[in-house]
Design brief:
heterodimer; A: 427 residues; D-Maltodextrin-Binding Protein, domain 2; 2 domains; 8-stranded mixed β-sheet; 47% helix; globular; B: 314 residues; mainly alpha; two-stranded antiparallel ribbon; 14 helices; 73% helix; flat
Chain lengths: 427, 314
């Protein structure tokens, strides 16, 4: 065996280290872009992102490297990558994460990069999903709203023929489901995870004409209406009309499997129901978008603005109008993408042209969904940069209330105090 | 004699030395090789433990969250906020409760199982091997298995209790304060019994059988033998097991996070979960580091006891 001198050994080691270091970022330098996506990590939706990337490569010759991340871990991964200086070129963000992610110094203002013409193609309403303080820090990818979905088949089993309009009718329908559909959870309200609980809570607060935080940042939860909303949720749990330990994926699964009559979701509900029921498109007839129940006649049903966005980050690669990352983002707003991907994922296109396309305008489900959106409001918790802390506080106090550890009044008062402290710290 | 020695020494210094000989002789060469072997471990320690620990120590005195992307020195601000936070103080109490229950039950059950497996009976070897199964399984897998057992809708526990007519409808075990705490303690105890049992079983091998037989002849019962012979014999093992158990349970994260995520509300939010939530849910790295520092302080007494026992045997 040939002897290796210390110098040779050292040179080999140095060479290996250099090769390892230069390997980092080699993908982007080879003319591609990276794309961190939670849709890519969702098994039913992965093929759509695969196709999107393949089509982009076929049309532009640019390779995009998908980086999958679970929805619940996406923000963590982005912040950790920011701290370790390994941010991807582009990343998919839930619309309500945008304000928090916009605090990262590496986020790119897209107006000079993508140009007015590209951004002008976006529907003004959808455009706001990616704006923070007037700056376009993300482009919308798909849009819609978050509202209630009903399972027609389960309601039929319970003898409920008409979708509930008021909260009293909603409650009566839940009782009927509990009593007539064995092993069901009538309303699979999210009760477990701070990432999901605030959406259900917002809708129930708004249904009681309560607010959580107004546009100026003033916390308003501890009002008579807010306390009534908390008492309503506690009552649902007491009467076994909702259940503890439910996260959004659990709700989707049970709804698809016929164990739940109502849950809260984006228009993607149809895609999840198709998959979890095992019945594919045959399940579509049972997925009925419904207006948020109201307290009394004359009230306006409200839903939460919702969408997926894509942001660009500064890293070792160049930023400019003609970089692979910019071309990728422009492609996401093209008609080819906007008339296919949103439909596949169960959302609305974000460009004006996409929304006017016949294939979108004639989709009965999306049309029905649109009819339920009477007033879409901003997520009152997620729009703040301390949204994650506010969500944790909200979730803890709602859990304490529905699990009987605190009265509705005590939980609401505590929520008010803690949220005010968080907002004060935010400055 | 002295003259002779001196001349011998002079003769030694003038003895022809090989050109390849190193300064300081063989001992110095050994030392250098020793340092060379030590270098990877020292480098790993510095990179993986010392540097992150010192940085975290520094962050504890800063405001470092999403609103302040670069750390800003605030002195003892985080610690003042911690002292005024009933949530964080609650986490200390929850941690204490968890450590006492998990360590206590594991020691008692591990010792009992070791005594059983120390008896001579048919199939003992197979039972000993099977007893190690929970230890072999990844802890998160165990957590999910127990999570399924306690699940409110599909759980095994509910199915059995419903079948026996002991409960009228499924109970959400993980959604009550006591149920969730019991679940994380049971899971950890189940996971840790094999390790503790192995320690105790090894200790029991050195127990003098004749001494036990003599005690029985003198009329000692099982309890007296346990109290007067077995436990004094196992005292050193017991000390190590308890200290290691306390340290391990103070650091416990994975099973708790996988089972309850620290909930319901904050019922199982031990310090490890609190640090994780502050750092990765709320992005308050400064506050997370401050809690982490206090957390280390709670582990230090147990670590000191263990190291003292290890180094001095007392």
């Amino acid at each position: 065996m040939a002897k290796i001198s210390r110098r040779t050994f050292g040179a080999l080691g140095l060479g290996a280290a250099t090769a390892a270091l230069s390997g980092r970022g080699a993908f982007a330098q080879s003319g591609g872009a990276s794309f961190m996506s939670f849709t890519f990590a969702e098994e039913p939706n992965k093929p759509f992102i695969d196709k999107l990337i393949a089509d982009f490569k076929a049309s532009s010759g640019i390779a995009v490297e998908p980086i999958g991340t679970a929805w619940g871990d996406a923000q963590k991964n982005i912040v950790l990558r920011q701290r370790s200086k390994t941010l991807p070129d582009t990343a998919q963000l839930q619309d309500r994460w945008v304000p928090a992610m916009a605090t990262l110094p590496e986020i790119v203002d897209l107006t000079p990069v993508l140009g007015a013409a590209t951004l002008g193609a976006i529907d003004p309403g959808a455009s706001s999903l990616g704006k923070v303080d007037g700056k376009q820090v993300a482009i919308p990818l798909i849009s819609g709203s978050v509202g209630f979905v009903a399972n027609k088949e389960v309601l039929a089993k319970a003898g409920v023929e008409k979708l509930p309009v008021t909260l009293d009718e909603f409650r009566a329908a839940l009782v009927a489901v509990r009593d007539k559909v064995p092993n069901s959870v009538p309303y699979t309200m999210a009760t477990k995870n701070p990432g999901a609980v605030p959406l259900d809570a917002l809708l129930i607060f708004w249904a009681h004409n309560a607010r959580m935080i107004d546009e100026s940042g003033k916390v308003l939860v501890n009002s008579p209406e807010g306390r009534a909303a908390m008492a309503f949720m506690a009552g649902l749990m007491k009467d076994r009309l909702i259940a503890p330990e439910f996260d959004r994926p659990d709700s989707r699964r049970l709804f698809g499997q016929g164990g739940s009559a109502f849950y809260v979701d984006a228009p993607q509900a149809r895609t999840f129901a198709r998959n979890f029921s095992g019945r594919g498109e045959a399940m579509d007839v049972n997925v009925i978008p419904m207006k948020t129940p109201i307290l009394k006649a004359g009230d306006t049903p409200k839903s939460v603005e919702w969408g997926h966005t894509v942001a660009m980050f500064k890293n070792a690669n160049a930023i400019g109008p003609d970089t692979p990352a910019s071309k990728w983002m422009k492609y996401l707003l093209s008609d080819a993408v906007q008339t296919t991907l949103p439909l596949a994922l169960g959302g609305l296109p974000v460009t004006t042209a996409g929304r006017n396309a016949p294939v979108v305008a004639n989709d009965a489900y999306l049309k029905a969904w649109g009819a339920t959106v009477v007033q879409a409001m901003k997520h009152e918790v997620g729009v703040w940069s301390n949204g994650p802390e506010l969500s944790s506080i909200l979730t803890e106090e709602i859990q304490a209330c529905i699990l009987g550890q605190k009265t509705a009044d005590a939980a609401t008062a505590s929520m008010q105090t803690r949220m005010e402290a968080s907002m004060a710290k935010r400055g | 004699m002295a003259v002779h020695d001196m001349s011998a020494s002079t003769a030694q210094t003038t003895f022809p030395v090989s050109a390849l000989a190193r300064r300081g002789g063989l001992k110095a060469g050994e030392r250098r090789i020793g340092w060379l072997f030590l270098l990877p471990a020292v480098a790993a320690f510095v990179l993986v433990i010392a540097v992150p620990f010192l940085r975290a120590l520094g962050y504890a005195f800063t405001r470092y969250d999403l609103q302040t992307p670069e750390p800003v020195f605030i002195g003892l601000g985080n610690f003042r906020a911690l002292a005024a936070s009933p949530e964080v103080l609650g986490s200390f109490v929850t941690t204490l409760l968890y450590v006492v229950l998990a360590t206590g039950f594991t020691v008692i059950l591990g010792l009992a199982w070791a005594i059983v497996l120390n008896q001579t009976f048919r199939g003992r070897a197979a039972l000993r091997a099977m007893s190690l199964l929970p230890w072999v399984l990844p802890s998160t897998v165990c957590a999910f298995v127990w999570g399924w057992i306690f699940n409110s809708r599909f759980g095994l526990l509910n199915a059995v209790l419903l079948d026996l007519g002991l409960i009228p409808f499924p109970t959400a075990w993980l959604s009550t304060t006591s149920g969730a705490m019991s679940a994380i303690v049971v899971t950890k105890v189940w996971l840790s019994i094999p390790l503790y049992m192995s320690f105790f079983l090894a200790g029991l091998q050195g127990l003098d059988r004749e001494q036990i037989d003599a005690a029985r002849v003198d009329g000692a019962g099982n309890l007296a033998i346990l109290r007067d012979h077995v436990l004094p014999h196992l005292r050193p093992v017991l000390l190590v097991v308890v200290v290691l158990g306390v340290i391990g349970n103070l650091q416990q994260f994975d099973t708790i996070f996988a089972l309850t995520g620290g909930g319901p509300v904050r019922a199982t939010t031990v310090l490890s979960i609190e640090v994780y939530r502050r750092a990765f849910d709320q992005w308050d790295v400064g506050m997370a580091a401050a809690i982490g520092l206090l957390w280390v302080a709670t582990i230090l007494p147990a670590a000191y006891l263990y190291l003292r026992h290890l180094l001095k045997g007392v």
